[in-house]
Amino acid sequence: MLKIIIMTTMMIPTTLLLKPKILYQTTISYSFILTLMSLMLLKQNTHLKPLSNLYLSLDSVSAPLLSLSYWLLPLMVIASQHMMNSEPMQRQRTFLMTIMLLQTLISLTFTASNLTLMYIMFEATLIPTLIIITRWGQQSERLTAGTYFIMYTLTTSMPLLMAILFLNNMSNTPTPFFMTTETTNTWTNLILWLACLTAFLAKMPMYGLHLWLPKAHVEAPIAGSMVLAAILLKLGGYGMIRMMQILPVMKTDAFMPFIILSLWGAILANLTCLQQTDLKSLIAYSSISHMGLVIAAIMIQTPWSLAGAMALMIAHGFTSSMLFCLANITYERTHTRIMMLTRGFHNILPMMTIWWLSANLMNIAIPPSLNFTGELLILSSLFNWCPTTIIILGLSMLITATYSLHMFLTTQTSKSSLNLPTQPTHTREHLLLFLHITPLMLVSIKPELIL
After folding, report:
1. At a CB cut-off of 8 Å and minimum separation 6, what does 63 contact?
2. What is the predicted pLDDT for the residue at 45?
3. pLDDT single digits (tens) 174-194
4. CA-wise closest residue to 283 among 207, 238, 228
5. CA distance 437 to 74
6. For helices 89-111 and 23-39, what crossing angle results, to 10°?
7. One-character DSSP codes across 388-403
8. What are the BP-aspect GO terms (predicted)?
9. d(Cα 246, Cα 248) in Å, to the nearest integer?
10. Is 76 within the bounds of a domain?
11. Which of 202, 314, 409, 445 could form a disulfide with 209 if both were Cys (CB 3.0 to 4.6 A apart)?
12. Does pLDDT of 294 surpass 90?
């Protein structure tokens, strides 16, 4: 585990020192080696057990998310290649360096063994993300998006810091994840829970604390969108699962407002998707609805629901990242994200239609994909907890199917309104999309790797 983190850290000076001719080849191949190494961490046998020490530890919660972040690292570089080619060499190096720094901080967040270290790394991921959004974003609104992103995250993580200091004071040590704390006062328990949850709920984001997400996604470059949708939203879910191991046990009734808000929020976000004209904004709102299901599943704290939340987080990471890549491929050819202007692509790039269809079917959660596994587990555990939730969940899935098909039909069918000469698709783009969809199919064959 430590060798992977040291290797990732050494990527930062590597990107600055490589010759311009071999910059992308070396970075991408090096990242793929890291990806293969991270896949070994998924299989944790007893003789491989010394995966924990005083500062870093790895278990069945963090290993799948760590592998997901490493899998997306080379894909982010591949996706940004076209965009970066027009920039000066110095800026290309800075961009790659920022991505590698972000990856290092993310892997440290997932492998931190105590609360304090996790909090520091969780906050540190903000800085590279902010640089990527505000420096390489497309429009002038990117500064507003960056401000929203920082304000929401910092405001909500202040109570979390207070709670962590309180817990550390109680145990006289940086609180490790395997230690449960006990307080006698029920109010103290409640306030501790609220303080810890707000930071992670804003990061997920829960409906109501979600306003920074569509802005950040729309303004971010493709690598920024991919890392935001696939990994940074999962930090919220990961943090919530970790908090459940430490904080005093609470009755599920205390979380009732959050569960109701996240389930209704999923429906409202889905309805918002139906009226979006901007392609990236639509995909961003669909992330909010999927994360709503994950929040509800984590809150009821049953083994099934936690397994479902984990599966849906991984599946959503690949699916939304793939949708953003497709939106970017369209954007690079049309220079617009308005869905009505990007229609008729089936006649121009017929091969892309297959990728669009498969990505949208994954978004709907069609069997045998991993999305289906996750949604089925969440559905059954929520129904078991309260039968009424089936109405909300059924409605949510119906609207998801509607807007996914709407997105597919709007971008692919009817007559094209473009008169520009369009570039054919590159092998690089097909490889990028293939590497998104393969893990979803393969993991659904052996889901115990991540459950």
Report:
1. 41, 42, 44
2. 62
3. 888 878 777 778 888 899 999
4. 228
5. 15
6. 10
7. THHHHHHHHHHHHHHH
8. ATP synthesis coupled electron transport; electron transport coupled proton transport
9. 7
10. no
11. 202
12. yes
Whole-model pTM? 0.95
Q: Residues 25-52: pLDDT tens digits?
A: 999 999 999 999 999 888 876 555 555 6
Mean pLDDT over 211-223 rounds to: 94
What are the backbone dihedrals phi and psi of residue 176, each rounded to the nearest 5 degrees, phi first? -75, 165
Between helix 233-246 and helix 89-111 the angle, nearest 10°, is 20
Number of domains in the chain: 1
Q: Name which of 368, 319, 349 is nearest 411 in CA terms.
A: 349
Domain-embedded: residue 254: no
- Residue type at 76? M
Q: Which helix (H) or strand (E) holds 262?
A: helix 256-274
58 three-class SS: coil
Q: Has residue 100 got a pLDDT over 60?
A: yes
What's the first-to-final CA gap in the chain, in angstroms?
20
Distance CA(448)–CA(451), nearest Å, equals 5
Cα 248 to chain center, whole Å? 28
Q: Which residues contact 193 (CB under 8 A, 6 or more apart)?
A: 243, 247, 250, 254
pLDDT given at position 405: 95
| SS3 (DSSP) at 112 | strand
The residue type found at 228 is L
Q: Which domain holds residue 293?
A: 264-389+403-451
- Return the ∠ at Cα 67 (arms to 63 and 69), rounded to 5°: 120
Q: Any bridge partners for residue 442, and if so which?
A: none
Torsion over CA: 356, 361, 367, 372 (sign)? positive
Are the CB atoms for 396 and 293 separated by under 8 Å? yes
With beta carbons less than 8 A apart as the criterion, state whether 307 and 237 touch. Answer: no
Domain-embedded: residue 115: no
Residues 224-257 have pLDDT tens digits of 999 999 999 999 999 999 998 888 888 888 899 9
For the chain, give the mean pLDDT.
92
- Measured between alpha carbons, how far is 122 from 120 in angstroms, rounded to an integer? 5
pLDDT tens by residue, 341-370: 888 888 888 899 999 999 999 999 998 899
Closest to 389 measured CA to CA, from 309, 310, 311, 293: 293
Mean pLDDT of 406-412: 92
